[in-house]
Design a protein that fits this description.
- The chain is α/β, with parallel strands linked by helices and 469 residues long.
- The chain is 40% helix and 20% strand.
- The chain is built from 16 helices and 20 strands.
- The strands form 5 sheets. Strands 12-13-14-11-10-16-17 form a 7-stranded mixed β-sheet, with helices on both faces. It has a 6-stranded mixed β-sheet with strand order 7-6-5-8-9-19, with helices on both faces.
- Helix 4 crosses helix 5.
- The model has no long low-confidence stretch (mean pLDDT 97).
- The structure holds nicotinamide-adenine-dinucleotide.
- The site of nicotinamide-adenine-dinucleotide has 30 residues, from helix 8 and helix 9.
Length: 469
């Protein structure tokens, strides 16, 4: 699997129904994905159930060594994996995109392997000796989105395997090939049946989240689907980690330096062409520096090339699918119709192939505008003017999701004070969206519940057990 053609050949179905997967930048056929059914899912779960006890019995040390070998296998296939990811998802090879995502897969695998998880002695007073341990859950179902398909799959798979579980993955129907290829590479080092992929639509997803053989669902995707999974998992009382949608606010205080922060603001909002859960989606800027921030941000945005991912010069790509293109176009049109000022973009060319929406900055927009209140999940950033700190904090908190947020100021004490008042799972200061394998990550409000990464992330893939005596 060390060439692109060999990797693609490995995952091309040899029998059964298939579906063409198209490159969102060109419309060209990338490859064929299998069309799996609920019966295929049942077979995958049965295989996982059969394999899991022996994997759990290996113990942490052996599983850690295996995860490190899995990371080595991904490193060896990194360039073909990045190429397939670029062609299928649309994100460029270069910049914080496809190669970066494959690199994150191995970084997370190695960090997850390296994280210690000891039994905790809770009480040891001479009369009582109580310890807290974490047992494997059994089979974990992993349902993922199309924006960072490989990295998010690893976020779900790595802690599950480390804790002694088997995993059945259901990738997004938009990006199945990336996940099939990643898992094929990982499976070079894993026992057969322990980690499998079922490529189906939401019917297969719904069966997975109600399946009696599955003990936990790790879900990353939209809030609407998260709610459906809560309902369908209720009868089997599944454990859930839900990483759902966001509408992250960034607040730029009056003492920030517009030129110094412009590039950080840009990548906070436009990483993966805006198709990122914890991207900066609403930018609130103090009136004193509003115009300067608009000017500096526009200057940075104008230098960032967008185009076909395989072209090394590009750092921004297309929207991954037509439905997402239409959401972004609708929201920008609503903003323009309201009289908001277009600083950049907002004018997609409809006579080129691919779902390209130009980098768009919209100023002087009302906080109630749909481009502010809804998750755009694309390259269009509304910039809202504020004068009063209490008012802007209320506006930042005035949505029913709370994944991330950011505060921008050289005065760290002041910035931390503001951060503590934001209703979000993570608040960054002078940055936005950076994640780290040792720092817990999860949402507040309707952005979901449960934590990923670090020791908290490992604990979430185990069943706590107290041994008392
Ligand atoms: P989506 O909810 O449409 O789909 C996600 C997955 O759920 C897909 O695999 C889909 O097939 C499956 N699915 C759909 N209906 C289902 C059902 N009833 N039961 C079980 N599975 C079902 O999300 P998407 O459009 O792929 O991703 C974009 C969304 O994901 C955005 O809202 C974004 O903010 C969010 N997201 C969140 C995070 C995070 O960490 N919080 C990360 C990435 C993306």
């Amino acid at each position: 699997m060390d060439t692109y053609d060999a990797l693609l050949e490995t995952i091309t179905p040899k029998s059964g129904p298939t579906r063409e997967i198209l490159d969102p930048a060109t419309g060209a056929v990338v490859g064929l994905a299998p069309v799996h059914t609920v019966d295929d899912l049942d077979r995958a779960v049965a295989g996982a159930v059969a394999t899991q006890p022996a994997w759990a019995a290996r113990g942490h040390a052996e599983r850690i060594a295996t995860l490190n070998r899995v990371a080595d296998a991904i490193d060896a296939a990194a360039e073909p994996l990045a190429e397939l990811l670029s062609r299928e998802q649309g994100k460029p090879l270069n910049g914080p995109n496809a190669r970066f995502e494959v690199g994150a897969c191995t970084a997370w695998l190695r960090a997850t392997a390296a994280t210690p998880l000891e039994a905790e002695v809770i009480v040891d007073d001479g009369q009582t000796h109580a310890e807290l341990h974490y047992r494997p859950i059994g089979v974990v179902g992993a349902i993922g989105p199309w924006n960072w398909p490989m990295m998010i799959a690893v976020w779900q798979i790595a802690p599950a395997l480390r804790m002694g579980n088997a995993v059945v993955v259901k990738p997004s129907e938009y990006t199945p090939l990336s996940v099939l290829a990643l898992v094929a590479v990982m499976n070079q080092e894993l026992p057969a049946g322990l980690l499998s992929v079922v490529c189906g639509d939401r019917e297969v997803g719904a069966r997975l989240s109600s399946h009696p053989g599955i003990g936990k669902v790790m879900f990353t995707g939209s809030t609407a689907t998260g709610k459906a999974i809560i309902k369908s998992s209720a009868d089997t009382v599944k454990r859930l980690t839900l990483e759902l949608g966001g509408n992250d606010a960034g607040i730029v205080l009056s003492d920030a330096d517009p030129k110094a922060i412009a590039e950080g603001l840009f990548w906070g909002a436009f990483i993966n062409t805006g198709q990122t859960c914890a991207a900066l989606k609403r930018l609130y800027v103090h009136d004193d520096i509003y115009d300067a921030v608009c000017t500096e941000l526009t200057a940075v945005a104008e230098t960032m090339p967008m185009g076909v991912g395989m072209d090394e010069k590009n750092v921004l790509g297309p929207l991954q699918n037509k439905a997402q293109f239409d959401i972004v176009a609708r929201l920008v049109d609503a903003a323009k119709d309201s009289g908001a000022r277009v600083l950049l973009g907002g004018n997609p060319s409809l006579d080129q192939p691919g779902y390209f929406y130009p980098t768009t900055l919209i100023a002087d927009i009302d906080n109630a505008n749909p481009l502010v209140m809804e998750e755009q999940f694309g390259p269009a950033l509304p910039i809202i003017r504020f004068t009063d700190l209490d008012d802007v904090i209320a506006q930042a908190n005035g949505v029913d999701v709370g994944l991330g947020g950011s505060v921008w100021s050289p005065d760290l004490a002041k910035a931390r004070e503001v951060a503590a008042r934001l209703e979000a799972g993570t608040v960054w200061i002078n940055g936005h969206g950076g994640v780290h394998p040792m720092i817990p990550f999860g949402g507040a409000k309707q952005s979901g519940y449960g934590l990923e990464f670090g020791v908290e992330g490992l604990k979430a893939l185990g069943v706590p057990q107290v041994i008392n005596g």
